[in-house]
Write a structure and sequence with these properties.
Shape of chain B: globular
Oligomer: heterodimer
Number of strands of chain B: 1
Structural class of chain B: mainly alpha
Strand content of chain B: under 5%
Organism (chain B): Maribacter caenipelagi
Number of domains of chain A: 1
Number of helices of chain A: 11
Radius of gyration of chain A: 26 Å
Keywords (chain B): Sigma factor, Transcription, Transcription regulation
Pfam families (chain B): Sigma70_r2, Sigma70_r4_2
Radius of gyration of chain B: 17 Å
InterPro entries (chain B): RNA_pol_sigma-70-like, RNA_pol_sigma-70_dom, RNA_pol_sigma70_r2, RNA_pol_sigma70_r4_t2, RNA_pol_sigma_r2, RNA_pol_sigma_r3/r4-like, WH-like_DNA-bd_sf
Largest sheet of chain B: none
Distance between the termini of chain A: 26 Å
Helix content of chain B: 55-70%
Structural class of chain A: mainly alpha
Largest sheet of chain A: none
Strand content of chain A: under 5%
Largest interface: A-B, 54 and 71 residues
CATH class of the largest domain in chain B: Mainly Alpha
Distance between the termini of chain B: 57 Å
GO biological process, one term (chain B): DNA-templated transcription initiation
Chain lengths: 219, 174
């Protein structure tokens, strides 16, 4: 089958369509086209709600840190959680910016990349959850102090705290390496694919695979 | 009397119906979903109609919108397209011999080519449709947003696959 033959087959298909295909104008007339423009983009709304949520979390954490500035472990815990909330906020703002740029009249690859990056948004939260593992103690410390005005830190065993800090500090570098690997460009690596299968939703996985396909397509 | 926006729009869709019809058939393997995709593409084109910049080729603009819509539909990304509330039960396109593309009297090889295009990955499908519609490499690159070299390489690879597929079928005596 040569190129010329393929084109001839397609020309045959075109000729056939030209002779039998017609537009059902009545169907378009019935479509209430003028109303469709007002449809709101659900994604843009959801991500905007996320931005507002993380902004509120940052305000609360900022106030918490300022109120406990004199108590080292509470201030440090507050700052750590503030940084995590900031990363999540930046991620969500990025998504809002991407969603606002979706215009189907733009080149296909550009639009698909933006859509799929938004679709794999939950990966950011998975990464943040992993990244916060070495400092998980900040969550109960801040939560107990904020909601119950109870400082648990002085009640902890000092040897346990030291051990915990050293072990988690050692874990930080391999953890960062692991999280960097969890990217769509590494979907060809078996363990990355398996990890994504376990941790991420079906939609995130689908989006990552498609982004990987796009990378391949661009080669 | 000057035609209304809707009249102009309908005439444009009529002029390019074959392209939209083929995109729908390539991205929608389920016959019962095709009506939805046809209407979805028409709605997206209508919503973007006012923003069309005549500086660019009309078909480039139309291909981008139709293919982006079809890919989202194919990937079942419902959040990226309009709600079905505006849809009706009628097909946008009609075939003389009933609304059934399978009923078209096409040669076995044309049907095989159609089947083959349907089986391609989303982006390969787009590139092949654009190529077979006689678009130049430059136009295809512009619609997709890749380099012309990339377009050439991709088309070459897909053609090899098509050739192999046809050869395989011939050798099995289908």
């Amino acid at each position: 089958m040569e190129d010329k033959e393929i084109r001839e087959l397609f020309a045959e298909y075109n000729d056939k369509l030209d002779s039998v295909l017609s537009l059902n104008k009545a169907s378009i007339e019935k479509m209430k086209l003028n109303n469709t423009k007002k449809q709101t983009n659900k994604i843009l709304i959801l991500r905007s709600i996320e931005v507002v949520f993380f902004l509120m979390v940052m305000i609360v954490l900022g106030k918490f840190t300022a109120d406990h500035w004199g108590v080292l472990h509470l201030a440090v815990s507050g700052i750590i959680l503030y940084v995590f909330a900031l990363i999540a906020l930046i991620g969500s703002i990025g998504e809002v910016a991407l969603a606002a740029q979706i215009d189907y009249a733009k080149p296909i690859i550009e639009i698909r990349e933006k859509i799929e990056k938004i679709n794999m948004h939950s990966l950011l939260f998975i990464k943040l959850a992993f990244l916060s593992a070495p400092v998980w103690w900040t969550y109960p410390i801040v939560a107990l102090a904020y909601f119950f005005d109870f400082d648990i830190f002085p009640h902890l065993d000092a040897a346990f705290v030291h051990r915990y800090i050293i072990i988690n500090a050692l874990l930080l570098i391999p953890l960062i390496w692991f999280l960097k690997k969890l990217s769509y460009i590494n979907m060809h690596i078996k363990w990355v694919r398996k990890t994504i299968n376990i941790l991420a939703s079906a939609n995130t996985k689908k989006a990552m695979e498609f982004l990987n396909d796009i990378e391949e397509f661009k080669k | 009397m000057e035609p209304t926006k809707k009249e102009k729009f309908i005439s444009v869709i009529d002029e390019h119906k074959r392209i939209i019809y083929k995109i729908v058939n390539s991205y929608c393997p389920q016959r019962e979903d095709r009506k939805d995709l046809e209407q979805e593409i028409v709605i997206q084109l209508w919503n973007a109609f006012d923003n069309y910049n005549p500086k660019y080729k009309f078909t480039t603009w139309m291909y981008r919108i139709a293919l982006n819509t079809a890919i989202s539909f194919y990937r079942k990304e419902k959040k990226w397209y309009q709600k079905n509330d505006f849809f009706n039960d009628e097909s946008v396109f009609c075939l003389e011999d009933g609304n059934n593309v399978e009923a078209l009297e096409l040669s076995a090889n044309v049907k095989l080519l159609q089947e083959f295009i349907q089986k391609l990955k989303e982006l390969d499908k787009a590139i092949m449709l654009l190529y077979l519609e006689e678009n130049s490499y430059e136009e295809i690159a512009d619609i997709l947003g890749v380099s012309t070299t990339n377009v050439g390489t991709k088309i070459g690879r897909i053609k090899v696959k098509i050739k192999k597929e046809f050869d395989k079928i011939k050798s099995h005596g289908r």
